[in-house]
Predict the structure.
Amino acid sequence: MSKKLTSLMLRTLIGVGIFMVVLFAVGVAVGWLAGHGAVDKDHALVWVVGAIAVVAMVGAMVVSVAWMRAIDEAAREAHKAAWFWGGCGGMSLGGVFLIMTSLPQSEQWRFSAFDGRTDPAAYAATGAFGMMMLMVAGYAVVWAWWWMTRMRD
């Protein structure tokens, strides 16, 4: 493994550790403030989770960009091909389910990944999560295929 990747992995682990400590501290602070009536816990929860989500996604993008810059050209090509072919293939499979939801029979379907919730937000999140999982599964299959075909030569 290159020094760039080792350094990136170490910095990422340190960053995740700091993020976890900050999460714990914010959770304790908001819990204490809500317990003393200084903040409404429902409103605080929305803002804290929203802020955590933004920081986590920005951090993921920063690490992804650094990772792509640190790997060699062959690995970059493998990832690009896997995301294009695997991601599009997975999204196409998800598109079949999406189109099927236009059928009148789909009105009877009841499923949610969010503890049995049946509100529109839970259904939208379940669909988005399902689509992402299909894309990641397609990516993994194409990525493995890409490397296997090149390692045989």
